[in-house]
Amino acid sequence: MQVQLRPEINSSRSRVILQPRSTGLPRDGAATHDPNTCPACDAARLQSDAARSQQLQPATRESLGLDLETAVEVTLIDQRPLKIPTTSEGPLLINRRLQGALLFGRSSSGVKGLFVLPGVTDADYNGIVRIMAQTSFLPIHIPKGSKIAQLVPVRVLTADLQTASERERSSQGFGSTGGLNT
């Protein structure tokens, strides 16, 4: 199923909202969704390990990072961080091994005023890799397919340590295993 998304501004939240265009999804107010939680963004997932390994490749032979492409077009209209889905999903397989990764912005993103917040993608994470981005230079438009962030693979060194919990990793991410109590 191919999903086409178009950005719309929801003035009550001052955020960019993505609405499906001719996807067969309901169009009432309840169907409005944002890229942080929208099921339609799941269409951006890669379907096989082969496709995933082709997607995540270094730009050059000596590159540390693997460039990530945005799965949707977004426009940042305020200074709050926004989760942007990529075309990649976990678990991350690199050289046929599960890997964790650190997520950083590409240098070209910072030069353009787009700040990518650093993140961690655990080796057992199952779900779409998302980029947390924000800007002070409003508005800033990010086309679909933009390479604004990169994953730097990290070998898991904690596998033999006792875990704090026996629960399985989900596809939730962003604080799903415990986070900031506010």
Automatic annotation (TrEMBL):
Ranges in coiled-coil conformation: none
Residues covered by the dUTPase-like domain: 55-178
GO molecular function: aspartic-type endopeptidase activity
Pfam families tied to this protein: dUTPase
InterPro entries (alphabetical): dUTPase-like, dUTPase-like_sf, HERV-K_Pro_peptidase_A2
Highest rank taxon of the organism: Eukaryota
Gene Ontology biological-process entries: proteolysis
Entry keywords, A to Z: Aspartyl protease, Hydrolase, Protease
Protein name (record): dUTPase-like domain-containing protein
Organism whose genome encodes this protein: Cairina moschata
